[in-house]
Amino acid sequence: MEIIWQGIKQAIILIFTGNREVYEILFLTLKVSGSAVFFSMLLGIPVGVLVGLNKFPLKKFIIAVINTGMGLPPVAAGLIVILFIWRSGMLGFLKLMYTPPAMVIAQVLIASPIIAGITLAAVQQIDPKLKQQVLSLGANRFQVYWILIREARLPALAAVMAGFGGIISEVGAVIMVGGNIKGETRVLTTAIVQMVRMGNFDMAIALVVILLAITFGVNFLLTLIQQKEGIGWIRRF
Amino acid sequence: MDKKILEISDLKKKYNSKFCLDVNNLYAEKGKILTIIGPNGSGKSTLIRLINLLERPDEGKIYFNGHEITNGEVSQTEVRKKMAVVFQEPLLFNTSVYTNIIMGLTIRKIKLPRAKDRIDYFTDKLKITDLLNRSTKNLSGGEKQRVSLARALVLDPELLLLDEPLANIDQSSRESLRADLFGVLRGYGKSVVYITHDRNEAMVLADDIAVMDRGKILQFARKEEIFRKPVNEFIARFVGVETLVDGVILERKGNVCKIGLVVKKGNIEIYIVGQWEKGTRVTLAIRPEDVILYNTEISSEESSAMNLFKGKITEIRDIGIFKRVEIDCGFPLSSFVTQNSVNRLKLALGKEITAAVKASSIHMFKR
């Protein structure tokens, strides 16, 4: 028990004394996972909406692929990315190996199927008659999608939460493509692994507390928005 | 200029082996209200979806403002932008009432200041001005449909399509919504297609009526003609004719036919205005509101009504504003009277009574 209290105390000290290394790790984590979730939204929401709202051959197959992607093991995502960006790989010339962009790509690969899958399920829940109503109001194809995404905005928010939760806490992919280089590609999860290996439990616990605090904070904010429809911007959004 | 805003010719849409929509000829005139009545499942809603191009017909053509819209050459979106539909269910979006009302305007890129007067007018008429900032989640069914109606009306469409807008509203709020909606439509002056299974709504609202059953238009005519001269028994029953009896034309003098009724016992003769030949087998339709009751026995010298029947009251039933009195005069005859009349005439079961029907208010059609 003692060691846990020590760790929590250490965490508070580290955060409030402005430990440079901790802040670097924290910012890189937010930057990598934040941009990964952003790109995953750009990719996952339209795919989910298009697949969910349209009828086409192989639809069930595509849905099965997306659902499989939702459970993609991070190490598999890491390996796929490595095969592309490895020096001799197809995108080797971009020299992305062991850089934050590589980590973002790997995380997008993990989060976008999650966001697509949940969005897809959400738009399929919308009454098909509502689509007819939108059409009869004179909407073109693009407007139909846009209005129905807005209608599914609460489940879509849940999709974003799930996607963010999935990538900020994963370690397999980022360690494979990022390499946990101090000051360059070290993020919270890889740092925690490193600290535990070194037997530096105080620091490890401190970083875990920070990680939990971020995850909780982000999810709390999104939950507030989701549960309290009264917040002005989202009602008019 | 063409008076018809909408015209349908030889339209066919097959769903399965059992149901096929088949509309030969139907049109809506500009500025008039066309009411399509028919029982549930008769294809009325399908017709609306076809007109709004939400479905494609298998065969046939629909003309809007004189131009064919079913040939695939015109943009569906552009056609829909000239119409507005209110469906049976309100189908609102999960945001505020106001955002819902302006949804169509936003989609059609109509500038809000240009529509402000209409928004104010229709929200006021439909009594939803106080709800504008509310979320649609907590509205009652009636309130939701009011919002849906306002959303369509503010678009100022060339053709307004109303698909049983009152059918799914609970009884308590339906009456007030009907009053408010009809109030709007009466002063509306725009072209409307109103679908309903309620003949009273059609009676109050319509200029023209089309009666539908099993995918077909059975009769399409001016309102008065449908109610006065239904072409067959189905329509007669549907538009509210209560008494239907079979008979044969015995003779014809000028405009009046003498008809012998096919009844179990005795001979009953009825005079009807009509010009069919002797021997024609006919069915007679007598509307309960046209049957007048007398307490005393009266002779044909004392009444302008040519048809006087003596009978016994077999039933008195409450049907809202009226009492429906069933009289056995060799054939069952129904009459609608007010409670006041029941009291004055001391109507009661088994009482002997005289019923009078004018020759001009009975309608007959060939069997």
Would you kindly provide a written description of the structure presented here, covering whatever features stand out?
The complex is a heterodimer of chains A (237) and B (367). Chain A is an all-alpha fold and 237 residues long. Chain A contains 12 helices and no strands. The longest helix of chain A is centred in the N-terminal third of the chain and has 34 residues, at 20-53. Chain A is globular and about 65 Å long. Chain B has 2 domains: 4-238, 3-Layer(aba) Sandwich (Rossmann fold); 243-366, Beta Barrel (OB fold (Dihydrolipoamide Acetyltransferase, E2P)). In chain B, strand 7, helix 7 (171-186) and strand 8 (191-196) form a beta-alpha-beta unit. The mean pLDDT of chain B is 89. Chains A and B meet through helix 6 and helix 7 of A and strand 6 and helix 4 of B.
Key structural traits:
heterodimer; A: 237 residues; mainly alpha; MetI-like fold; globular; B: 367 residues; alpha+beta; OB fold (Dihydrolipoamide Acetyltransferase, E2P); 2 domains; six-stranded mixed sheet; five-stranded antiparallel sheet; 25% helix
Instruction: Round the mean pLDDT of chain A to the nearest integer and report it.
Output: 89
CATH fold node name of the largest domain in chain B: Rossmann fold
Task: Please state the second-level CATH architecture of chain A.
Answer: Orthogonal Bundle
Biggest contact: A-B, 19 and 25 residues
In total, how many domains does the architecture of chain A comprise? Answer: 1
Q: Kindly state the percentage of residues in helix of chain A.
A: over 70%
User: In the CATH hierarchy, what is the superfamily of chain A?
Assistant: MetI-like
Shape summary of chain A: globular
Which percent band covers the strand fraction of chain A?
Answer: under 5%
Anisotropy-based shape of chain B:
globular
Give the low-pLDDT segments of chain B.
Answer: none
Oligomer: heterodimer
Radius of gyration of chain B: 24 Å
Give me the CATH fold name of chain A.
Answer: MetI-like fold
What Rg of chain A, in angstroms, do the CA atoms define?
A: 20 Å
